[in-house]
Please model this.
Amino acid sequence: MKARTLRRHFRESFKSLARNGWMTFASVSAVTVTLLLVGVFFVIMMNLNKVATNIEQDVEIRVHIDLAANDQDKEILKQQIDQVPGIKSMVYSPKEKELDRLIKSFGEEGETLQLFEQENPLNDVFVVKTKNPTDTMKVAKQIEQMDYTAKVEYGQGSVEKLFSFIKVSRNVGLILIVGLLFTAMFLISNTIKITIMSRRREIEIMRLVGATNSFIRWPFFLEGLWLGILGSILPIAAVSAAYYQVYDLIREKVNNPFIQLIEFNPFVYQLSAVLIIMGAAIGVWGSLMSVRKFLKV
Model:
């Protein structure tokens, strides 16, 4: 395509936006409302996913070593655990450290447990984490059958329910996002379709003077692009401002390692890029589909 022709298409697309002011406003409003919903829901789902990931990564297997096991037996058990597929890390925690941890967990009431420091009844422990948190149950069952293993703890019962809940939540969130995107595409394409339908005569005249299909499509392609980009500006500003306030509030008020939001930077810039690309793609798609299906170009 010649540069002069391309400049003409750009010029005509801008003129068309100004000439059809109310229809442009309607299209941009449709893009704005739908992308605002998509943006808000996307932020919520991404942060819920982060919280779920933090919880998953905290799941660990505590392998209590038999009290009768000597150092050589412990080394044998360590090597056996190392050979289990899917192991991410393993840390040895002696019974003295386990007692300190138990005392701290009870707070002031734990002071009475200091009486056991001379004759510590606890087991030495291997703290094991898996590469994939969902493999925790399978790995725990394998370790449980090994020699010199007194007991294996991983939150049996609760962990299975937790992973099941997280899986369902992620699947539901994905379905809702996809559904919302299709709804957005439907609403925006219908609005753009009305805009193009009102200009049927303009397209018929262009065809009568010998304009090719691609020559006619290009201004509408660019117009849909501008509508999508313009419609994404307000959602980006609104979602970014709201997320900054919520992020700042959560960071100051909530002191919980699990409830941590995604860092404001670069998440907001990534979200902005996603919304711009999404708006532009939906605008272009709506314009081209409307021209092809309803104006018989």
